[in-house]
Amino acid sequence: METHQTEKNNGTKVANWFKTSITARMLMMGALILLLMIPLTLIQKLIKEREIRQQGVVSELNDKWGNSILLYGPILKVPYKTYEETVKYNEEMKETFKENRTIIKYAYFFPKKLDITADVKASSKKRNNFETAVFTSDIAASGTFETPDFSSKSIADADIVWEKATLLIKTTNLKGLKSEVKLNLNGNEYGFETNFNTINKSHTKLEELESSFIALADIPKTADRSFNFKLMYNGSKSIQFIPIGKVTNVQMKSDWKDPKHAGNFITQSERETENGGFEANWKLLNTNRSFSQQFFKVLPNLNQYAFGTEFIIPLDEYQKSERSAKYGFLVIGLTFLVFFLIQTLSKIPIHPFQYLMIGIALVMFYTLLISISEHSSFLKAYLIAGTAVIVMITLYSKSILKNWKFPVFIGTSLTALYGFIFVIIQMENYALLVGSIGLFLILGIVMFVSRKIDWGFDFTQNSKLTTHNS
């Protein structure tokens, strides 16, 4: 009987400690927040899975419309003869003899001047809720070739096979080409065919277009020769060029409002156009990049020198949802902190189960956000999910706190918190700055409100309980 009474007294002590102890409430809140991190982590994984699915659909859309464009050319390709001497043995004559073998190799010469203009009409393309940026581009190039210099390799003029010289244009996205490829050299037009052996399914490998043999009169043997050509593409993601001219000038204009200029070279100038698009210019000299104007035997991979513009959608729905979910810990922690301050200052008891229900409601916000945003815009999804969760928690708080004063304050706090996070999500350059200032202000408010809490209440109460039980 006495043992049973002791156990009952100990149970009463523990129950009273959880009811009255600030420390106990803080430990309980911490444990619940950690517990709620499990479903929040699973939601973040779900967002990632849906984003991967989106990337698959976007890749399929881009592949059908046209992929990214990387272009450089034209390149003058001139064959030349080299000779190899080999020693052979004649079995019948029982003697050795020398044999000269002619080997054809190729020299590649870049333009002296290269001017490129690109007019890009961009738009977004959707399938269900998956969105990508696509465009139609008109590219015009002109310039001059100077006389090829074979003297550096000590190649005699008699060994140069001028009559089989051709022109090369190297590019990705042949599928997206919407115009016949023709180049005007010295007033004469040359058509191009695809070099089948260079085709590769990888979009990063350049495919090669080669012209028919150039007429001897059009080869820049004695003087510079001018050229020009035009291409029309359907493409997506980006347009980039490689600066192969001694002087390369590129001018690009587009109606796309969110360009990202990429590559090793920055724009010479850039301005926003009247329709909200952009106009950008690059000017590069051969001294700005570390490769020669001519190559013998092999034309190397020059992709690392590419520059141009990426046509991006700044933040899609899944990126915004993912960024929103990263603030889940903050939302749950601050909401629990509001309830903790109300409970501590007003002495209204709140059961751990009630904290758990509030936490689950906050987690449900993200599942609502993802599912609704797949069938609507992110703004509408955020408004619907946020309103539903705020109303639910506010009404639930009324049943706990028995009056409207604190629930209205909770609803207002949640509205401000969700609004603050939405503003941060929309920002790119100033997200960290605004977020840091906002958190600093929240910390200041919490410090101001919590100054009235008697943190020694635990010890006084526990002392009273011990005296009473004695």
Comma- or semicolon-separated keywords:
elongated, disordered C terminus, alpha+beta, 470 residues, 2 domains, 9 helices, 16-stranded mixed β-sheet, transmembrane helix
Walk me through this protein's architecture.
The protein has 470 residues and is α+β, with helices and mostly antiparallel strands. The chain has 2 domains: 11-55 and 318-469, no CATH class; 68-314, no CATH class. Helix content is 41%, strand content 30%. It contains 9 helices and 16 strands. It has helices at residues 2-20, 22-65, 317-326, 328-346, 352-373, 378-401, 405-426, 431-450, 457-469; strands at 69-90, 95-109, 113-127, 130-145, 166-171, 182-185, 188-194, 207-211, 225-236, 238-241, 247-254, 259-263, 269-272, 278-285, 294-296, 307-311. A hairpin with a 2-residue loop joins β6 and β7 (188-194). The longest helix has 44 residues, at 22-65. Keywords: Membrane, Transmembrane, Transmembrane helix. It comes from Kordia aestuariivivens. This is Cell envelope integrity protein CreD. The chain crosses the membrane at residues 22-43, 327-346, 352-369, 381-400, 406-425, 430-449.
The backbone outline, from C-alpha atoms, is: elongated
Name the average pLDDT: 81
Tally of DSSP β-strands: 16
First and last CA, distance: 18 Å
**Tally of discrete structural domains:** 2
Q: Could you describe the largest sheet, including whether it forms a barrel?
A: 16 strands, mixed
- H and E string: HHEEEEEEEEEEEEEEEEHHHHHHH
Low-confidence stretches: 4-8, 199-204, 457-470
Structural class: alpha+beta
- What helical percentage do the residues reach? 40-55%
Q: How many alpha or pi helices?
A: 9
